[in-house]
């Protein structure tokens, strides 16, 4: 499996069903949204989950359609909530996490990285159950809340080196170290 976070994940919509037979000429179609690095792995994950939830597998079914879903507005920052299940060394755990990102796929990338760092989970052992855009007033996690409260998050610029306003005022060598504290 290609690395889930190196190239980034994409959101795919996969539609599939059991292959029509004489006993069941019109089987129901199932639609699933999956995060995967490419279309091939999205199809593979579709059959992995369908085999868990329905009596279907790749040899007895067919994929009708695979589409990549892109973000409608990737220019505004949003709060994303991710409900997930992961397998650890001690068992299976459910979890809710919040991320602030421009795209859902970037939030999922951040989730995979954070789960690897905090819980030592591999992307194959994480299953995303649900994802949603969370309104500012519904945010729960302190890590996301700190960016929402007015004037709470400050990004100071300490240790700045003042530069000459033009090239002719610049000097190649100076006899003193640069002063970087401007309070």
**Mean pLDDT over the full residue set:** 90
Task: Output the strand order for the largest sheet.
Answer: 2-1-3
Radius of gyration: 24 Å
Unreliable stretches (pLDDT < 50, length at least 5) are: none
Task: Give an account of the 3D structure.
This protein has helices at 39-53, 104-119, 142-148, and strands at residues 10-18, 29-36, 61-69, 78-87, 92-101, 126-134. It is an alpha+beta fold. The strands form 2 sheets. It has a 3-stranded antiparallel beta sheet. The mean pLDDT is 90.
Any key phrases for this structure?
183 residues, alpha+beta, 3-stranded antiparallel β-sheet, 3 helices, 6 strands
Question: Topology of this protein?
Answer:
Layout: E1 10-18, E2 29-36, H1 39-53, E3 61-69, E4 78-87, E5 92-101, H2 104-119, E6 126-134, H3 142-148
Antiparallel strand pairs: 1-2, 1-3, 4-5, 4-6
Short description:
By secondary structure, the protein is an alpha+beta fold. It has helices at residues 39-53, 104-119, 142-148, and strands spanning 10-18, 29-36, 61-69, 78-87, 92-101, 126-134. Strand 4 and strand 5 (92-101) form a beta hairpin.
